[in-house]
Each structure stands twice: as structure tokens, then as C-alpha cells.
Amino acid sequence: MARGEAPQTRIYFKGKDDEFVIFVNNAEAAERWNSDKSTPLVRVVKTFQIFKTREHGSQGGLLIASNADLRDEFESDDIDKIIEIILEKGILKNAKVCGLVFSMVSGVAQTF
């Protein structure tokens, strides 16, 4: 498999207005965490970044969720606590990401 084409395991959480997304190492790590909360999050998530999508669900572009977005939805901007909520209540999906680049400066996922 060429670089950038590896399957990405995501967990989606449907909020009031947006869907929130986190990337996890693999489905087994997420399931293991759900059965044993003592598993450190660093062994489960790929990045401690929460993304959101407003349109097109799992097919839409991803934006980095702002602290205001997180407070509006989760009444907190504590990343660890929000990741735990998404892990517990979200839906696990695997997606093949081909040519997707996350711009940490603009906060937008772009294809090339």
C-alpha cells in the first residue's frame, strides 16, 4: 500500500449541529479502552485533536474543532474528557484516506 493510503480508523460522534471525529490507532484499541478505562488514551488515539464536519457526514471535509465548538457541544474544552465521551458514545468507522492532508495552520483537511 502506498504512502498515505492506509486505512484510517475514526470515531464519529453526532452532536447537535456538527459531527465530531477523532482518529484512533485501530478498532481493537478503541474496543479495549471501552472495556478497560485504565488503558491510557495515548495507546488509543492517534492524535489528541478533535475534528468536526458540518456537511456530508463521514464523507465531508474535516475542520479542527475550536474550543468554542467543544464548549458549545460538550460544555467543556478539556480534550481528554471529550475524547473519552467520543470513544464511549461514538460510532467506529474505517476509511481509506488517499491523498488527504491535514493543515494544522488553517484547520482544514484538503485533498491533493
From TrEMBL:
InterPro entries: Ribosome_mat_SBDS_N_sf (IPR036786), SDO1/SBDS_N (IPR019783)
Domain of life: Eukaryota
One protein family per Pfam: SBDS_N
Domain Ribosome maturation protein SDO1/SBDS N-terminal, residue spans: 9-94
Chain segments annotated as coiled-coil in the UniProt record: none
Protein name (record): Ribosome maturation protein SDO1/SBDS N-terminal domain-containing protein
